[in-house]
Amino acid sequence: MAVTIVGVVTDLAAPTLHSISLEEVRARDAFVRWSIPDDGHAACWAVGSSVAVVHRRAPRPMLPSPWAVLLGRPAELRPLVDALPGLIGGPPAGVTMSADAYELIPHDWAFAARGHWDYMVTSTVPAVPRGVEIEEIDDVDVINAVLDADNADAHARPGDPDVQCWLGIGEGSAMACVGALVLTHNGGGHLRAITTLRQARGRGLGSALSAALTRRGLERLSPEVTLGVYSDNVAAIRLYERLGYRLVHHFTSAARAEPRDQSDIC
Fold first, then answer.
1. To bridge 124 with a disulfide, which of 7, 136, 152, 244 should be the other Cys (CB 3.0-4.6 Å)?
2. Residue 66: cis peptide before it, omega within 30 degrees of 0
3. Do 90 and 167 share a domain, yes or no?
C-alpha cells in the first residue's frame, strides 16, 4: 500500500530488516548453499529478497573474520549495510557482495576491493568430447609445472585438503592442461585451477577438461557443480556457458587487511 504525503509517495508496506535462518537462505541461493559452512557460526538477516550472511569464523581459513556475504538489490542492501555494525559489534573484516551494490560500503570501513568475479552453477551433465584422453593425475611435480608456467596464482594446489581429484590432458610426453575438482564446505563439487599451457590453447583442451570435471562432480558429489571466474575473463565465461553453466552472481570481494593468500578471496 502506498500513500502520498505532501507530494511524496510513501510505501507503507516497505520491507523491514529481520533475521532469517541460514537454511532459508541456502534453499534459495546456490552460493550460500554450497559455500557458507553450516557449522553454527553464521547469522543471517534479510530486507525483502536481499540478505546479509555473516560468518563469525571466516568461511575459508585464509580470510579475515567476521566475513559478510551481501546478496541482492542495492536498495534493499542499503539498510542491511547500515545496520551490520550494530548487529555484529562493528564492521565486518571483509565482504563478498553483489557487485552493483559495492558502492554502499562506507568509507570508514577502510575496505579495498580484492576481486571482481562471477559465480556460476550447473546441474546439467555435459558431454565430454570423444577422442580426448583425460586422465587422473597425482604427480605433484607434473601438476605444479603446469600451474607455475601459466597460472601461478591458482586457487588450488596439490595437497589442498578439499581437492577430490586432479584431471589432466597430455600432449606428447608432457601434460598440457590440468584442473581440480574440490569439495565445498557443504559437500558440493567446485571447479578450480583449470589451466592450459599457453602453447596448447585454442584446441579445446580447457573445455574438454572442464566438461570431465563437471561430469565427475555431478555424478559423484552433488546435484550442482559450481565455479568462480574473474568477471573480465569473457572467453572462459562463454566456455562455461556452452557447458551448461549459468550465472548466479556478479561479485566484488573486499577486505580491510590483505588476506594472507589473495587467491583465496573467491
1. 244
2. yes
3. no
